[in-house]
Amino acid sequence: MSKKNYKLEARNLNAYYGSFQALKDINIAMEEKAVTAFIGPSGCGKSTFLRTLNRMNDYIDGFRVEGDVLLDGKEIYTKDVRVDELRKEVGMVFQKPNPFPKTVFENVVYGLKIQGIKDKKRLTEAAESSLRKTALWDEVKDKLDKSALALSGGQQQRLCIARALAISPSVILMDEPTSALDPISTAKIEELIHELKKDYTIVIVTHNMQQAGRVSDQTAFFYMGELIEFAKTKTMFTSPKHDRTQNYITGRFG
Amino acid sequence: MNHIDVELSGLRVKLMEMWDLVEYQLQSGREAMLTADHELAGKVLKLGKKVNNFDVKIDRMCENLLALYTPVAVDLRLVLATLKINANLERIGDTAEGISMFVKNRENRFSPEMLEITKAVAMFDEALSMFHDCRVAYKANDTEQARAIIKRDKMLNKIYRKSDTIMAEYMRQHPDNIEEGLALLSIIKKVERVGDQITNIAEEIIFYQDAKVVKHKSKKKLDKDKD
Predict the structure, then answer these.
(1) Annotated domain spans of chain A
(2) How is the beta sheet containing A20-30 ordered, strand by strand?
(3) CA atoms within 13 A on the CB side of B126
(4) Which of B2, B5, B76 sits opposite A238 (nearest CB)?
(5) How far is CA B213 from CA A231, B58, B127, B146, B205, in A?
(6) What DSSP string describes B183-223?
(7) Tens of pLDDT along chain B (227 residues)?
(8) B121/B104 Cα distance (integer angstroms)
(9) The model scores a pTM over 0.90
(10) Regarding the domain delimited by A8-98+169-249, which CATH topology (the fold level of the hierarchy) does it fall under?
């Protein structure tokens, strides 16, 4: 491997749910301030892998990993790494918008409050800044004290992204962030991803092949727990090397 | 069969139908030229309309495929290659029609001596054979053959390059045949263009099959790039 600095790396990574091996010898290096998309059929390991990147699988009984996951060149599966500190660096957005049943404002500043920040001015500034980054500010600035659950699905998802941004992570993981949204909201999130990659490293799991094509710089194709192919997105969608990749992206799987 | 496969194979079938038509035009253009057959030349001209309809239809099919199926990888390359092959086929058809116009505008056959010294017939036959083999290569997805066809274009270029001097000399000797000579020179130029268009098509076959861009490369390099 070259001397280039990668934001996220996996080396000889294996992951197990009990006796079931979900990831097989994954080796991958993701560039900083770029968008990497994970694609593959259900059960291929892409979401498992995404969740190993901020140790989201730690809670699952019988889950264990072998090998290394590195953030900024530092191993994250060691005893001296505090998971809450790790998640400040590596934020996450899920498939379904999951705002807390609180006001819009409280949602955005939730992470900061947990960290013990009470200064009202600082919280207000952080909220505005995060909401502006997710292009939500103009839509919600008059509803900051209203319930987040009253927002539309697309707005809720952008609110969740704003919530993730408020704690200033450097990586954002997205697990099918638009699969529950209509095309307009989807387009807004995709625009947002383009904006965000100027400042953040983004990893996105998507079942929507065209979405991977539109938003990502690099694409990784997983199949049965293996990383089959990892290349520039342009290459993956015009001339993939492996037949498996080609069959999957052209819809001729199986 | 996958739905996109149905659409793609429909596209290929359409293109082959057009290919047959254009091949017939080119063959008949040669025939009409050698026999001064005005009726046959007229037929070639008339077929132009049908070829144009194919051209429009195939473009439309590609447009729909792109809009509705958003093809990627090999599928996308097939659609892109088809668009370009379609355009080249249409141009070859136009050339056959152009040759037929020359036939219609003249009463007599070309002088055998003139045909002999310019090697016009040999050139025309090679172009026809290349065109035929190119169709086979397209149908069989045979990129080896496509590469071979690209190399064969050299012969046409060679004959074309020499034709000016040979004809100038001939016309100096036979000042009465200047018009005939100019007509034949124009036809030779057209056949040379056909060679280029067949080359373009062969390049698209390679692009579609191997995801390699070979156009604008020297023919020597073509062999090196194979792997």
Answers:
(1) 8-98+169-249
(2) A20-30, A8-17, A63-71, A74-75
(3) 25
(4) B76
(5) 19, 23, 23, 13, 10
(6) HHHHHHHHHHHHHHHHHHHHHHHHHHHH----TTS-HHHHH
(7) 678 899 999 999 999 999 999 999 999 999 999 999 999 999 999 999 999 999 999 999 999 999 988 999 999 999 999 999 999 999 999 999 999 999 999 888 999 999 999 999 999 999 999 999 999 999 999 999 999 999 999 999 999 999 999 999 999 999 999 999 999 999 999 999 999 999 999 999 999 999 888 888 775 566 555 44
(8) 18
(9) no
(10) Rossmann fold (3.40.50)
Q: How far apart are CA A189 and CA B178, in angstroms?
A: 71
Find out whether A192 and A161 touch, Cβ atoms under 8 Å.
Answer: yes
Residue B89 distance to chain A (closest CA, Å): 25
Chain A residues close to B66, C-beta within 8 Å: none
User: Is ipTM strictly over 0.85?
Assistant: no
How far is the C-alpha of B15 from the C-alpha of B29, rounded, in Å?
21
3-class DSSP string for B60-112: HHHHHHHHHHCCCHHHHHHHHHHHHHHHHHHHHHHHHHHHHHHHHCCCCCCCH
Counted across chains A and B, CB pairs separated by less than 8 A come out at 30
B77 touches chain A (CB under 8 A): yes
End-to-end CA distance of chain B: 31
